[in-house]
């Protein structure tokens, strides 16, 4: 039974997280003229005026109302470049007979130009375009996102965020035909992926700035996705609108997260614009996949919006047993959502999703001398991985007035995992026969998450503030049961597969665990003329409780911590924004110290980063160029206790410093460009294990990538599109002692597309030249292969 004090703490956490924060009196909201002078990037082609106004609202962040009798046949001129919303609107309405006035900081009303009284003109009633404002989670036009909510939990232009952030939009996911989260990050600086090659268990093996981002940096719509042992929540990329990568410590808003940053997966939401598509794909490795995405209003007034996303896949991984049986990778996914917007100030989005994955388990290859063979350690009669998960929750927002906005995001999720695999024990005296043993994992994980935010936009003298206060609460419960048993031996030179293997029955691990985290945070984004100051702080209280059912023991841990962030940016008038920032992170360390030191819970690991950089948005171009240098120190890393054998101490330290360059552009006439370069100098600076001065495993010193996609704008090839990319991943160390060097590699990707009416045909190839890439080698007999050439053809029909 859980302690009463802890139960009381849970109740208090829920009460705090779901109760509206008391709102103090604030100064007046920013003046309309101030809103009108904020620089924005516009890319609005010449089109009918109502459609142009909708695009203007999306890209400016303003809500537009206009006369109901507006001439739908009038054509607006194109507007392109970086300018104020006022200037953009002036150009858009040129020759339309309309002018405008600001009804509030975020609302523009269009009115007819004055006419002589003799002509009898009458004022026209206004209609409200409610879904026009661009948000940090909105669909991105092209490859350059204007806003993000990941770095600040407010809708902030990327150029004003004093930290490195990249946004992978839906357009890029479709151009590159992304099939996993790892694939989506292949062209992002500072990110190393696919560290352990092909993994049908679906783990997103991600490193950010040299630090592991798999376990503590996984976020979905701003809420952390927990994990435990082999239980990880998986994300279907087809269901995502964008993927955002915030690099560097991010605990000030999110609580526990490793020093490298976080990856936030932003879901598709219901839209007021009707859209439907069906996608059918086929490829090598016996791949067959079908997907559907439909959205639009359910009623005439547009108060109810729906969305339905579904995916069905049957595929293999490209790896097979000696008897010809392939290792599978199958999926079923469905995600319905519903938005209710009773007025322009309130919206509630209810969402749910269900995912079921069935695969062949672990790709574990027989390896000798750091040279992996194509023979698998497992057996198709035994090895498997089965995962079922669901999410349910809501996203609520209410704008009280032009100053105060309340938001709350809530989610409950569960995942069940069943994993069977075989492991090698030892190589026999004959040099060819391996003894093996069997393992079976049966796991369950549940998580409750809620984040409540109150945002205030106001001014104090010459300073415009965006003040954010919030409280979040996470409750995670996990169960892990692991059994082991005997298995027949395997001849590495003449392996026999399809043998009978009994399910393991000897318990090896059996524990239940609970984790709770309550966080309170406050952030101010203050703007004085062109100076932007970001200052935030957060207090976290967290606890864990683990019951070992085999040993009949219990381990508990309680702690509190404070993290912060401070940044300064200067938005120069020519589109250049230099910045400097300091940020912090923390990750709890599980376990306790030796009896000689009191058997105390470990202090958490802390990350501290200094970052300086510059962001450039060229005038007249839909582009964003960024450069950043960073220095991160992670302290209190667990290392060997030299005084007590078999125990650890939180005395280690890792440092990572480097340079990141990124360019994103959607140029005129259908050309999209991406380019990035990463230099990472990572080092273990303090260790009791003899690794001080060594480089951490899996971290390339150099990475570079480039992608270009071109859609022919006219002529006989008007419907043709071409895309090509190149990726360079530098050499890494496979072991902590830095004795196993994993070679660098360069990979090519290709995409071809052709449109026929409402249908779009596409052919993509990753690792075009079918390079045999070793992702890493943890030992001479433990290496992992990356995916070979993957070719997928598909047709997308939109209606």
Automatic annotation (TrEMBL):
The keyword Zinc does not apply. Residues 1-22 form the signal peptide. A motif (TonB C-terminal box) lies at residues 782-799. GO terms for molecular function: siderophore uptake transmembrane transporter activity; signaling receptor activity. InterPro entries: Beta-barrel_TonB (IPR000531), Beta-barrel_TonB_sf (IPR036942), Plug_dom (IPR012910), Plug_dom_sf (IPR037066), Secretin/TonB_short_N (IPR011662), TonB-dep_rcpt-like (IPR039426), TonB_rcpt_CS (IPR010917), TonB_sidphr_rcpt (IPR010105). Keywords: Cell outer membrane, Ion transport, Iron, Iron transport, Membrane, Receptor, Signal, TonB box, Transmembrane, Transmembrane beta strand, Transport. GO terms for biological process: siderophore transport. CDD domains: ligand_gated_channel. It is a multi-pass membrane protein. It is found in: Cell outer membrane. GO terms for cellular component: cell outer membrane. PROSITE patterns: TONB_DEPENDENT_REC_2, TONB_DEPENDENT_REC_3. SUPFAM superfamilies: Porins. It comes from the Bacteria. Pfam families: Plug, STN, TonB_dep_Rec_b-barrel. Residues 62-113 form the Secretin/TonB short N-terminal domain. Belongs to the TonB-dependent receptor family. This is Ligand-gated channel protein.
């Amino acid at each position: 039974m859980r302690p009463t004090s802890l139960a009381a703490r849970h109740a208090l956490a829920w009460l705090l997280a779901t109760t509206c924060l008391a709102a103090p009196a604030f100064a007046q909201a920013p003046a309309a003229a101030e809103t009108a002078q904020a620089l924005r990037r516009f890319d609005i082609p010449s089109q009918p005026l109502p459609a142009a106004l909708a695009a203007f609202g999306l890209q400016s962040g303003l809500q537009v109302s206009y006369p109901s009798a507006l001439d739908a046949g009038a054509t607006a001129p194109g507007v392109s470049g970086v300018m104020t919303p006022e200037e953009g609107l002036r150009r858009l309405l040129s020759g339309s007979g309309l002018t405008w006035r600001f009804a509030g900081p975020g609302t523009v009303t269009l009115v007819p130009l004055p006419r002589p009284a003799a002509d009898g003109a009458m004022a026209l009633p206004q209609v409200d375009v409610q879904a026009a404002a661009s948000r940090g989670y909105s669909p991105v036009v092209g490859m350059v996102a204007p806003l993000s909510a990941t770095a600040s939990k407010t809708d902030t232009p990327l150029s004003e965020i004093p930290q490195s952030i990249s946004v992978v939009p839906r357009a890029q996911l479709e151009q590159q035909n992304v099939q996993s989260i790892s694939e989506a990050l292949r062209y992002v600086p500072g990110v190393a992926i696919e560290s352990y090659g092909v993994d049908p268990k679906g783990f997103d093996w991600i490193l950010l700035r040299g630090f592991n981002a798999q376990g503590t940096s996984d976020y979905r719509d701003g809420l952390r996705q927990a994990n435990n042992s082999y239980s990880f929540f998986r994300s279907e990329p087809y269901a995502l609108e964008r993927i955002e990568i915030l690099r560097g410590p991010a605990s000030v808003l999110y609580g526990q997260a490793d020093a490298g940053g976080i990856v936030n997966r932003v879901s598709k939401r219901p839209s007021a614009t009707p859209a439907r598509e069906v996608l059918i794909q086929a490829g090598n490795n016996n791949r067959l996949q079908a997907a559907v995405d439909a959205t639009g209003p359910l009623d005439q007034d547009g108060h109810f919006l729906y969305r339905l996303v579904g995916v069905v896949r049957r595929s293999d991984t490209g790896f097979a047993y000696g008897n010809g049986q392939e290792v599978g990778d199958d999926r079923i996914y469905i995600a319905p959502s519903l938005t209710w917007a009773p007025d322009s100030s309130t919206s509630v989005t209810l969402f749910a999703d269900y995912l079921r994955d069935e695969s062949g388990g672990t790709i574990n290859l027989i390896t000798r001398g750091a040279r992996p063979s194509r023979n698998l350690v497992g057996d198709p009669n035994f090895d498997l991985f089965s995962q079922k998960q669901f999410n349910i929750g809501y996203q609520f927002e209410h704008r009280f007035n032009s100053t105060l906005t309340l938001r709350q995001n809530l989610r409950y999720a569960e995942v069940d995992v069943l994993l069977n695999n075989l492991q090698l024990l030892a190589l026999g005296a004959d040099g060819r026969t391996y003894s093996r043993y069997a393992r079976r994992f049966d796991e369950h994980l549940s998580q409750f998450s809620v984040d409540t935010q109150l945002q205030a936009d106001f001014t104090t003298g010459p300073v415009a503030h965006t003040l954010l206060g919030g409280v979040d609460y996470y409750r995670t419960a996990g169960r892990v049961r692991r059994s082991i048993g005997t298995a027949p031996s395997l001849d590495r030179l003449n392996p026999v597969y399809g043998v009978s293997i009994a399910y393991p029955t000897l318990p090896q691990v059996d524990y239940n665990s609970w984790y709770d985290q309550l966080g309170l945070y406050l952030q101010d984004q203050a703007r004085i003329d062109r100076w932007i100051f970001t200052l935030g702080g957060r207090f976290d209280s967290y606890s864990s409780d683990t019951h070992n059912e085999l040993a009949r023991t219990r381990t508990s841990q309680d702690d509190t911590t404070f993290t912060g962030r401070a940044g300064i940016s200067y938005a120069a008038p020519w589109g250049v924004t230099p910045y400097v920032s300091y940020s912090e992170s923390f990750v709890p360390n599980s376990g306790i110290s030796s009896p000689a030191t009191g058997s105390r819970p470990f202090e958490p690991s802390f990350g501290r980063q200094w970052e300086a950089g510059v962001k450039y948005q060229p005038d007249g171009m839909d582009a964003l160029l960024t450069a950043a240098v960073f220095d991160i120190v992670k302290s209190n890393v667990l290392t060997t206790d030299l005084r007590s054998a078999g125990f650890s101490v939180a005395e280690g330290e890792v440092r990572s410093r480097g340079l990141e360059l990124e360019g994103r552009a959607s140029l005129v006439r259908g050309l999209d460009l991406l380019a990035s370069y990463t230099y990472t100098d990572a080092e273990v600076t303090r260790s009791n294990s003899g690794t001080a001065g060594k480089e951490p495993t899996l971290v390339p010193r150099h990475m570079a990538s480039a992608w270009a996609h071109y859609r022919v704008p006219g002529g006989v090839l008007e419907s043709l599109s071409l895309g090509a990319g190149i990726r360079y991943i530098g050499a890494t160390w496979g072991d902590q002692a830095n004795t196993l060097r994993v070679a660098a590699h360069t990979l090519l990707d290709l995409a071809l597309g052709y449109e026929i009416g409402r249908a779009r045909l596409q052919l993509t190839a990753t690792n075009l030249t079918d390079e045999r890439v070793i992702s890493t080698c943890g030992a001479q007999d433990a290496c992992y292969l990356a995916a070979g050439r993957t070719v997928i053809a598909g047709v997308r029909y939109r209606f």
